[in-house]
Amino acid sequence: MPAYDFKKEYKSLYNPKKTPEIIEVPDMKFLMVEGSGDPNTSDSYKEAVEILYGLSYTIKMSKKNDTQPKGYFDFVVPPLEGLWWFDEDHFNGEVKSRKNEFNWIMMIRQPDFVTAEVFEMSKDALYRKKPRLNLSRARLGEHKEGLCAQIMHIGPYDDEPATVDKLEKHITAEGYKTVMGGLRQHHEIYLSDPRKSAPEKLKTIIRHPIAKM
Q: Which of 63, 62, 57, 38 is nearest to 110 (CA)?
C-alpha cells in the first residue's frame, strides 16, 4: 500500500488555482511551534522547523519499532505551514522591511491517530537523538480555520504583496471581509523546498480567514 498523502487526498486544500477561491477548511490536527522574528536570520525559527520535522518523521517511522500507535497508517509527511502576523497592523503581504517584527506559528499537519500520548512518546524519542532541541516549545493542537479565501502564489516570497492584493480584492468582491485573530491569521503553505527550487518557481498557498460582511 502506498503511503497516505494528504496533498493528494485533499486537493482542494493543497492544490488551489492561481485565481482566488472561497473554501471551507475542515478542522485539522497540527504540531505547532510558536515564535517571533525574521525567519531568514532567527535561530528560533530554524529550531522550530527542525523540531516540527523531527517530530513528524519520528511519528512516521514509529512503524519500524514497538512504539507504533494504535490506528497507525503510513503517511507522507505533509508540507510545512505558517501563520504570520504583526502585533498591531493588518497583514497585507508587504513585509520586506518588517520581518524582524513577525510573530509566527509554524506547523505540520498530523494524522488523527496522533494523540497526546503519541505526541509525548515522539518527543521522548526525538530528545534521545537531539537533546539540544527545546522540545517544550512544541504542542499538539486543533486548528479550526473555517471559512477562508485562498490562492496559489508562484514566485519569491517577497513578491507576495501583489498576490495578497489580488486575494483581498476577490474577498471584497464576493461580499466577504478578512477577519484575523487568534489562530486565524495570514496562512502560508509551502509546497516547494526553497533550498532546492529556484525562487521564481516556488509554490506557496496563501490563505486568509474571512466572514460575510
A: 57
